[in-house]
Every structure is written in structure tokens, then in C-alpha cells.
Design goal:
Order of helices and strands: HHHEEEHEEEEE
Largest sheet: 6 strands, antiparallel, barrel
Distance between the termini: 88 Å
Strand order of the largest sheet: 1-2-3-6-5-4
Shape: flat
Strand content: 25-35%
Structural class: alpha+beta
Length: 196
């Protein structure tokens, strides 16, 4: 193989540098955007513009008022439950408390019994009940019925802080009646959803 053939074989062919080209285009785009942006923003501002009139809400429908009344009556009895457990810190190897989950429950009586679901408590060993007034209380497990997904906790809060919910009967319920669920999904306090 001659020297010229050797040079022809080992010399890499010139290729376009796509990263450099892309970088140039990004810089050009940013410069154009910065140059045009003040003009675009200025054109949106009209000093002579007047706010639109805001109409009064008007009277609530009877159905809306009934829903509001149910929420006002029941929501002080709804609690937020935080479940925690111990885990080992991966760096220090010390035990630390970690949040395992959360859910809702309701105050059953003025002795501090809280009714909730088994799946809310299942992954933890410690439970904190936060009342509607945002006061937290440590709870103990009284009992659970896994087949019914029901559990009862107890907190030592004074009776004047506890507003128990009114309990009805299910024997005369009919399919199609309205159902209201007040809870704390994802920590969003005191939400209301409806269904049948």
C-alpha cells in the first residue's frame, strides 16, 4: 500500500457538526424571541381598556342550598388521618419516621372514637388524626374488620373539640339516592364530591 493510499484510507471524511449547527439555531431563535417579545407584550396592553361588569351570583337553587347545608353540618366531623412507620435512614442507618399514607375518617362519638378504613391504616404503626380545626392528635387502634374494610381509632381529645357525626340507618336506602363524600384526598382538606 502506498503512502497516498494509506492517507486516503485513514483520513476521516469531513462530517457536519450537528451539535454546533443546533446551537447556532438555538441562539438565533433566542435572539429573535427577545427582540420581538417587548413589542408583542406592548401590543397586549391597552390603557383605555375597561373591566367587564361582574354580575351578581343570584339566588342559589334549592338543590345547591341543600348540598351546602349538608356540607356545613357534616364537615366538622370529618378528620384527616396520616399514617407513619419507622424506616432506616440509608446514610446514617438511624431509624426515622416516614409517611406511609393518608386518608379520611369521621368522629363517631365524644369519647374520641374515629371510624376509618383498614386500608388507610394498613401500612403504618402510628396514626395522627387531624381534626377540622387543624389540631393533630395521636391515635391508638381500637379494632379492625378487614373483611368490611372498617377500623376504629381513638384519640384523647377533650369532648368539646369533638363533633360527632349524625348516624342514620341503611335499611331503607334505595339505589339512585344522592350520596355525598367529604374527605381529604391527597391532603386537600374538606373536599365534597357527590354521586348516587
Amino acid at each position: 500500500m502506498s503512502y497516498d493510499e494509506f492517507q486516503a484510507v485513514d483520513r476521516p471524511s469531513p462530517r457536519p457538526n450537528w451539535f454546533a449547527t443546533l446551537g447556532v439555531w438555538v441562539v438565533v431563535f433566542l435572539l429573535v424571541w427577545i427582540w420581538w417579545r417587548p413589542n408583542g407584550a406592548a401590543s397586549l396592553h391597552n390603557p383605555a381598556a375597561e373591566p367587564r361588569p361582574v354580575l351578581a351570583r343570584g339566588d342559589l337553587a334549592a338543590d345547591e342550598q341543600a348540598t351546602i347545608d349538608v356540607f356545613k353540618l357534616a364537615s366538622p366531623s370529618v378528620v384527616f388521618i396520616t399514617t407513619t412507620d419507622l424506616a432506616r435512614d440509608p446514610f446514617s442507618l438511624n431509624p426515622v419516621e416516614v409517611r406511609k399514607g393518608s386518608g379520611s375518617g369521621f368522629i363517631y362519638d365524644d369519647q374520641g372514637h374515629i371510624v376509618t378504613n383498614v386500608h388507610v391504616l394498613a401500612e403504618g404503626r402510628r396514626w395522627i388524626v387531624t381534626l377540622a380545626d387543624r389540631s393533630p392528635w395521636e391515635a391508638t387502634l381500637v379494632g379492625a374488620a378487614e373483611d368490611k374494610d372498617l377500623a376504629v381509632l381513638k384519640i384523647d381529645a377533650p369532648p368539646d373539640r369533638l363533633r360527632s357525626i349524625a348516624v342514620g340507618t341503611s335499611s331503607n336506602l334505595q339505589v339512585g339516592q344522592k350520596v355525598f363524600a367529604i374527605g381529604n384526598p391527597f391532603g386537600l382538606d374538606q373536599t365534597l364530591t357527590t354521586g348516587i
